[in-house]
Amino acid sequence: MIRAQRAMRSDNIEALISDFIYRYGERGRAVLEAVVRASQRLAREAMTPLPGDFDYRSVVEELGLMGYSYNPSPLLRILEKEYSLVRTTLHTSGQRWFVLSNKEAFEEYVEKLRSGGEEDPEALVIRLQLEALRMDEISRILRSLASKKRWSDTDYRRLYDISFKKMPKLLKIYRKIQEDPERWGSYMRDIEEIFALAKKLKARTHPQRGSEEEAFKSIDHAEPGEEKSPLTGER
């Protein structure tokens, strides 16, 4: 996780928000937008000082206007506890208010996301490439293979497709995004997890290969005219 204590700087606000959206998808993006809309609306309408930039009820209202009906509380808690992007200022049985750690930078970047101007062309291409590679599916297949004692022809074909077609591309992307770990931290961790799973598969296949080598070595030790079958050991 990108370190939350860096959240006060505007450039790290962007990295934290990008990480949050990557982890929580459309719901995360919707909650961020609802937070900004609630904060801006309350600032316009307030006649007296408020206990925070926005409250829970206002976020729910904005989500409703956007067409969403889910409870934002879990994601608001994550924004506070894991990312330090918001902070609770008032919590009673009837209301909960928050302030934004860096209101200007937060609102500016979320507005940029909403308008579609979130990143440079190279970064956009990288994200599209990672999306096309479907890393979650790669992880799922590798875990499935690791759990099997024997592989079918279909399993070997799946492993071939991953190892020859997808993992070289992941490695190339990984080497590129290593230059900016704050921006690409979540993607890097996902790629590292995939290569860790692949390493387990490599270790798993060694005993099988070794047993085959021992079987073929037995031919060398057979008496002349008494060659053994490498598979059955019979003469």
Sheet with the most strands, sense and barrel status: 3 strands, antiparallel
Q: How many β-strands, per DSSP?
A: 3
Structural class: mainly alpha
One letter per element, helices H and strands E, the order comes to HEHHEEHHHHH
Helicity level: 55-70%
Give the number of helices: 8
Shape: elongated
Overview of the molecule:
The structure is a single chain. With 235 residues, this protein is mainly alpha-helical. It has helices spanning 10-45, 56-65, 73-81, 103-114, 121-133, 135-146, 153-177, 181-220, and strands at 54-55, 86-91, 96-100. The protein has two domains: 4-114, no CATH class; 121-220. The chain has eight helices and three strands, in the order αβααββααααα. A three-stranded antiparallel β-sheet has the order 1-3-2. β2 (86-91) and β3 form a beta hairpin. α1 crosses α4 (103-114). The longest helix has 40 residues, at 181-220. The chain is elongated, with a radius of gyration of 27 Å. Residues 1-8 and 206-232 have low confidence and may be disordered.
State the gist of this model.
With 235 residues, this protein is mainly alpha-helical.
